[in-house]
Amino acid sequence: PAGDSWRAKYEEELRALRDALDLAFREKCTAELDRDNLYEQVEQVKSRCQKEQAAREEAKKQLSLSRKELEEERRAQIWLKERAVQLEKEVEALLEVHEEEKAGLDQEIASFSQSLESFPCAPAAFQPVEVEDYSKRLSEIWKGAVDTYKAEVSQLESSLCQAKENLWKAAEDNQQSQLQLQHLQKDLEGLKVRKEMLEENLARQWQEQRGEAEKFQLAMEALEQEKQSLRVQIAQVLEDRQQLMHLKMSLSLEVATYRTLLEAESTRLQLPAG
């Protein structure tokens, strides 16, 4: 009965030690799984940061291109304004030259008419056909000058309209570029905010990971210490068991010896005295 009680107690302690080892192993597996999940989350955050960085670089590139296009459009607008002013000056100069030529032709015609009226009769060498030819030539010269002037004015008006159309188009494109630039700046600000949030989340998760890693390390060290302690306890239990076995054997031998002595003494006492 005493041996059975000792065995039951030993087996109960051994079961408790095994349960503690199983619990420590399960906690270790859980900690490793949490560590792997946290590492995967960190990798996902890094991947998102890389994508945001690429998107931010692309936005910067688009912003730089938009600024270059805006600068080119601004220069084109300035050139068109200067060209429009130049064309207006050329039109004014041509109109002035035309007025001067017209005034000169009017004066020549008036002088020629006065010269014709001053003669009482036409000389014999001066025929009416020559006057008609001269008038016809003057009409042709005047018509040619007027046609040339009209062509130049039409060309200048066409150039001016084209310049105004280009200017209006450049202004419209400039406005669209400004809107696009504002959208890009807004997107860039949004990307900056998202980057800061991701960096904060990454830093927080990194701190949490470090904390979890430290806790895991402490738990592993505690489990290792507990494991060593359990080994020592198991070794002590085995040693105590061995000592108890030796003690039991020794007691058994001693009991057997006493029993033999008692039986011998009993036999001796039962024999009749000689």
Automatic annotation (TrEMBL):
Residues 7-115, 174-240 form a coiled coil. Belongs to the intermediate filament family. Keywords: Coiled coil, Intermediate filament. One of its GO terms (molecular function) is intermediate filament binding. One of its GO terms (biological process) is positive regulation of intermediate filament depolymerization. GO terms for cellular component: intermediate filament. This is TANA protein. Residues 1-269 form the IF rod domain. It comes from the Eukaryota. The lineage of its organism: Eukaryota, Metazoa, Chordata, Craniata, Vertebrata. It comes from Ceyx cyanopectus (Indigo-banded kingfisher). Pfam families: Filament.
